[in-house]
């Protein structure tokens, strides 16, 4: 009495006593399954076998041992990472290569941290301070003056003048004063300060 055959659907080799993989109710030996259906690793280009972990990111696949930083080769499995120019980088290497530097402390602004930006310069949120009171400006209005940045309150205290006509405190442009510093605002019209707005970003 003949024994019922149990063969690989593709190569027809017997699967009796051997490992096999089922796909859509069809059996394959592991070699045929890997050649036909396994994803290829982005690093080594070899199939990711049945006994290996298949790590994927944006439709790309890696062996577990190949999933590492392109710069320092540290493993990235279960670690935060960033992608740049089709390469995977650990957060340290990405920061060193591509992140902004704080204009005050000169240190890297790490991905995921909050940063301030104004006219092409960047700061840590805690480094963007009022020149007078040394408090963080955050997203509040500020006024640039002589390579420094002032919160509105401090700017008014340090640079405002009292109008000779109405006695109110005004922030004046230089053309509103005579050579002795006397307020000469025409029609008692206040000059409007040019206030800056820093943009707060979540840095990635």
UniProtKB/TrEMBL annotation:
Q: Where is the LIM zinc-binding domain?
A: 39-99, 100-161
Q: Which cellular compartments is it found in? A: Nucleus
Question: What is any one of the record's Gene Ontology cellular component terms?
Answer: Z disc
| Position of the signal peptide | none
The record's CDD domains line, in alphabetical order, gives: LIM1_FHL (cd09343)
Q: Which Gene3D superfamilies match?
A: Cysteine Rich Protein (2.10.110.10)
Protein's UniProt name: LIM zinc-binding domain-containing protein
Q: Name one GO molecular function term.
A: zinc ion binding
**SUPFAM superfamilies from the entry?**
Glucocorticoid receptor-like (DNA-binding domain)
> rRNA-binding: present as a keyword of the record?
no
Where is the chain membrane-spanning?
none
Q: Which InterPro entries match?
A: LIM_FHL1/2/3/5_N, Znf_LIM
Query: Which domain of life does the UniProt lineage start with?
Result: Eukaryota
Keywords from UniProt, A to Z, are: LIM domain, Metal-binding, Nucleus, Repeat, Zinc, Zinc-finger
Which organism's genome codes for this protein? Answer: Oncorhynchus tshawytscha (Chinook salmon)
A single Pfam family, by name? LIM
């Amino acid at each position: 009495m003949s024994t019922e055959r149990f063969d690989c659907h593709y190569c027809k080799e017997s699967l009796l006593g051997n490992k096999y993989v089922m796909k859509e109710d069809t059996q394959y030996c592991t070699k045929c399954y890997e050649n036909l259906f396994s994803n290829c690793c982005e690093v080594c280009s070899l199939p990711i076998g049945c006994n290996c972990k298949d790590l994927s990111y944006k439709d790309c696949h890696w062996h577990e041992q190949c999933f590492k930083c392109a710069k320092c080769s540290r493993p990235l499995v279960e670690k935060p990472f960033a992608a740049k120019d089709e390469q995977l980088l650990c957060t340290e290497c990405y920061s060193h290569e591509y992140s902004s530097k704080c204009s005050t402390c000169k240190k890297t602004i790490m991905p995921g941290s909050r940063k301030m930006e104004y006219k092409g310069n960047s700061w840590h949120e805690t480094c963007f301070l009022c020149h007078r009171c040394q408090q963080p400006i955050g997203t509040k209005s500020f006024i640039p003056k002589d390579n420094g940045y002032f919160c509105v309150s401090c700017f008014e205290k340090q640079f405002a003048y009292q109008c000779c006509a109405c006695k109110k405190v005004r922030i004046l442009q230089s053309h509103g004063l005579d050579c002795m510093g006397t307020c000469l605002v025409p029609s008692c019209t206040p000059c409007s300060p040019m206030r800056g707005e820093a943009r707060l970003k979540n840095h990635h």
